[in-house]
Write a structure and sequence with these properties.
The complex is a heterodimer of chains A (about 130) and B (about 200). Chain A is mainly β. Chain A has a single domain, classed as Immunoglobulin-like (Sandwich), CATH 2.60.40.1890. Chain A has one helix and ten strands. Chain B is built from five helices and twelve strands. In chain B, about 40% of the residues are buried. The chains are: A mainly beta (about 130), B alpha+beta (about 200). Strand 5 of chain A pairs antiparallel with strand 10 of chain B. The complex binds copper (II) ion. Copper (II) ion binds next to strand 8 of chain A.
């Protein structure tokens, strides 16, 4: 009962302004690249800006978007991404993704990978992403 | 951004479908019937076995796509679609179908790199091969298959590894048993049922 009350209290008073949910990565071998996907849920009435992602698991980490031009597909680095107030921004295949370049270890299915997302207002959010197929 | 791409894709696809039905009737007559120029092409598969394209696959229906393994966003979708088509084709018991995935980044996508990319995705190699080869040979083949892959600027990681990406055609190509290109589809977001149907039609 006490535990339940504690949980309820925590839920009520610690609804974070900004949440990162459902983080997952593509499987890939050491030395190769992977992509990280997640949802950023902004419960506040202020926008926030994701401007950096770091991880010990890759040599280089960049925020990317996939684009289409003249029937060709490509991807490029973006400096930042704004999450509007009371909205959810989804990083997903074919859209925004975080590039993990030159992995320092194998990303095996069901493995977990640590990363930190840096926001202008809400500072750092630490995540553990799951490696899975699609 | 992602939503925009998605809705544009659908908007583009629907009129195309109508156009097809009205003008040619895609089901029984394919939009293309084109010999692949410049052949034969001497390539390598994921086991470093020599492959001559398209000669080695004459008599088979070939489903071919184009990827590079340093692309973790779009290309795995294409590979996944190829696997789904392979499964469907197996289910409806169409024999004589070969799946090929050619890398347009042969400098980095050596046979062993392709093998690892395939193993991580549990590729069923019974009728699925990854292809790579000499850059000049691959580039010529790409040109003859209407596939464009433009290499972007190179940057370097701290350890000095070059980092570059491609802007490329998003494509799955259907080739008939005579080695002619018969239809082309998008690779990453594609109508699997349509391709399986076309394979059935070719098989009949
Ligand atoms: Cu990317």
């Amino acid at each position: 009962m006490t535990i339940l009350l504690t949980i309820l209290t925590l839920l009520n008073f610690h609804t974070p302004n900004l949440k990162v949910e459902g983080a997952w990565l593509r499987p890939a071998g050491k030395g190769m690249n992977s992509a990280l996907y997640f949802e950023i849920v902004n419960n506040s009435n202020k926008p926030d800006t994701l401007y950096k992602v770091t991880s010990p698991a890759a040599e280089l980490v960049q925020i990317h978007e996939t684009f289409k031009t003249n029937g060709l597909m490509g991807m490029r680095e973006v400096r930042f991404v704004v999450v509007k107030p009371h909205s959810t921004l989804t990083f997903q295949p074919g859209g925004y993704h975080v590039m993990f370049i030159k992995l320092k270890k194998d990303f095996k299915v069901n493995g977990k990978v640590n990363a930190v997302l840096y926001f202008k207002t809400n500072k750092e959010i630490k995540i553990k992403a799951l490696v899975k197929r699609q | 951004m992602a939503g925009l791409i998605k809705s544009k894709g659908i908007l583009f696809f629907i009129p195309l479908l109508f156009l097809c039905t009205l003008t040619t009737g895609c089901a029984d007559k394919f939009p293309e019937n084109k010999i692949i120029g410049g052949q034969p092409y001497s390539l390598l598969n994921q086991d470093s076995d020599s492959v001559v394209f398209p000669n080695d696959f004459k008599g088979k229906i070939v489903v071919m796509s184009f990827i590079y393994t340093n692309c973790p966003d779009i290309c795995p979708l294409t590979t996944h679609n190829m696997q789904s088509i392979q499964e469907q084709v197996k289910k409806v018991n169409i024999k004589n179908v070969q799946f090929l995935e050619l890398s347009f980044d042969p400098d980095r996508d050596t046979p062993s790199v392709l093998k690892e990319y395939g193993n991580i995705r549990n590729i069923d190699y019974s009728n699925f091969e990854f292809l790579t080869g000499k850059k000049s040979v691959v580039d010529t083949l790409l040109r003859h298959m209407n596939v464009v892959a433009l290499q972007g600027d190179t940057t370097f990681t701290k350890s000095g590894t070059p980092v570059y990406f491609f802007t490329h055609t998003d494509r799955i190509t259907l080739i008939d048993p005579k080695g002619k290109i018969r239809n082309e589809y998008r690779g990453s977001k594609t109508n699997i049922a349509e391709i399986v149907n076309d394979i059935k039609t070719l098989g009949d």
